[in-house]
């Protein structure tokens, strides 16, 4: 197991980039989030050329350094080109086994799931974690569907051993319900990248998640 894969068990706040929503830009957001203790970054970029993505992905890889996991959303080819730590893929993207064949055994593969059945299938196919989506309604992803509610996380947690990252409509007010519901980590895109101070917001999310885990589970 690489060092980066071992880090998966220790993540609290997970940043997904969004250049359309960001106030200060993707590179600035990544830099601030890493400085604030975010240990996993997903580069999600759908609006620039592959050539430009590869340039930006290499810069993000440098910012993540050895401390933070660096994943590329959807694009196995871009992840390979820059030797990222792995990919995050959706139900309609490249199947996990095909991605694993291309990336090899050491890279991290995360899959978006919406149900217990999809989570079980993801684990069976060799996913390293699942992104459970959407927990609440969100306007950040137009086709995300309706929120499943934080109370739906428990059934997924009971069904699989790999970590669950919760995503969709999460903010500081509802984060506690998400972690108590069974999520290992959570993503908040608009709550962080639309803020004036990404570093401070990230710090607050990291501290809040750690406190909820410590108070509830003693870890
Ligand atoms: N996938 C599922 S919901 C979502 C993505 C990328 C958007 C989450 O954004 P926000 O602003 O945290 O609701
Ligand atoms: Mg996708």
Provide a descriptive summary of the structure in words.
The chain has one domain: TIM Barrel (Alpha-Beta Barrel), CATH 3.20.20.70. Helix content is 42%, strand content 15%. Strand 2, helix 3 and strand 3 form a beta-alpha-beta unit. Helix 2 packs across helix 10, helix 3 packs across helix 4 and helix 8 packs parallel to helix 10. It is globular and about 45 Å long. The model has no long low-confidence stretch (mean pLDDT 97). The structure holds 4-methyl-5-hydroxyethylthiazole phosphate and magnesium ion (MG). Magnesium ion (MG) binds next to loops. The site of 4-methyl-5-hydroxyethylthiazole phosphate has 15 residues, from loops. It is an enzyme of class 2 (transferase). Condenses 4-methyl-5-(beta-hydroxyethyl)thiazole monophosphate (THZ-P) and 2-methyl-4-amino-5-hydroxymethyl pyrimidine pyrophosphate (HMP-PP) to form thiamine monophosphate (TMP). One of its GO terms (molecular function) is thiamine-phosphate diphosphorylase activity. This is Thiamine-phosphate synthase.
């Amino acid at each position: 197991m690489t060092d980066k894969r071992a880090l998966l068990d220790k993540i609290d706040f997970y940043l997904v980039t969004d250049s359309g929503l960001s106030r200060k830009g993707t590179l600035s957001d990544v830099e601030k989030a890493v400085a604030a203790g975010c240990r996993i970054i997903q580069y999600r970029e759908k609006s620039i050329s592959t050539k430009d993505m590869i340039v930006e992905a290499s810069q993000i890889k440098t910012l993540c350094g050895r401390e933070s996991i660096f994943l590329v959303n959807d694009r196995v080819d871009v992840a390979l080109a820059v030797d990222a730590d792995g990919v995050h893929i959706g139900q309609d993207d490249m199947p996990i086994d095909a991605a694993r064949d291309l990336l090899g055994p050491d890279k991290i593969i995360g899959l978006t799931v919406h149900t217990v059945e999809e989570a079980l299938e993801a684990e069976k196919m060799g996913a390293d974690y699942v992104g459970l989506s959407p927990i609440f309604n969100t306007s950040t992803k137009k086709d995300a569907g309706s929120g499943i509610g934080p109370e739906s996380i428990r059934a997924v947690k009971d069904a699989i051993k790999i970590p669950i990252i919760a995503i969709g409509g999460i903010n500081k007010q509802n984060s506690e319900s998400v972690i108590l519901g069974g999520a290992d980590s959570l993503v908040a895109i608009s709550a962080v990248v639309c803020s004036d101070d990404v570093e401070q917001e990230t710090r607050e999310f990291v501290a809040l998640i750690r406190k909820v885990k410590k108070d509830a589970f003693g870890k």
